[in-house]
Design goal:
The chain is α/β, with parallel strands linked by helices. It has nine helices and seven strands; from the N terminus they run E-H-E-H-H-E-E-H-H-E-E-H-H-H-E-H. The N and C termini lie close together (8 Å).
Amino acid sequence: MLRIGLTGGIGSGKSTVAAVFSVLGIPVFDADAVTKKLMEEDESLKLAIKKEFGEESYLNNKLNRKYVASIVFNDAHKLEILNSITHPVVIAEAQKWMQQQTSAYTIKEAALMFESASAAGVDFIIGIFAPQHLRIKRVMDRDHVTRHDVLARMDKQIDEDLKMKLCDFIIVNDEQQLVMPQVLKLHEHFLQLAKERS
């Protein structure tokens, strides 16, 4: 079974593209959603986060996202610490999940594919590219945040041009080119590759 990574900067449209693969019957592992879930449910993870960020990082046994975000998005070292706590747990969860799948290929969607060393666990990586102005607008509309907030988040991810150079395939999501034909082309390609490898 082929393991395909799916990545892109904030606001590039990863979730949209992942949803198309899902409709095509391909299992998708959403690393960001799993991270959020584990931060709420994994007791050892919760303990590690409380130890590093204080008891106020959880309210009524729920992650105090605003509080944690206010720390990590303003302190690169603290963000690194949070990532070092969460990434190994999520990577292990993704590997376990992939082993349970029976499809020709799987998709692992992760914003920090390269930053978290998740790239080592996949065969190919698809990058979703969108121009910066579009990405900023999408995130401002989606999360009801300021341009400044979006740029601060973007600063925490590796340079978009470098990220795309590290990818094996690119899907352009610029509202000019249709995404569906690009996904279908890759879908056929991966099905063929999986067939050749089996």
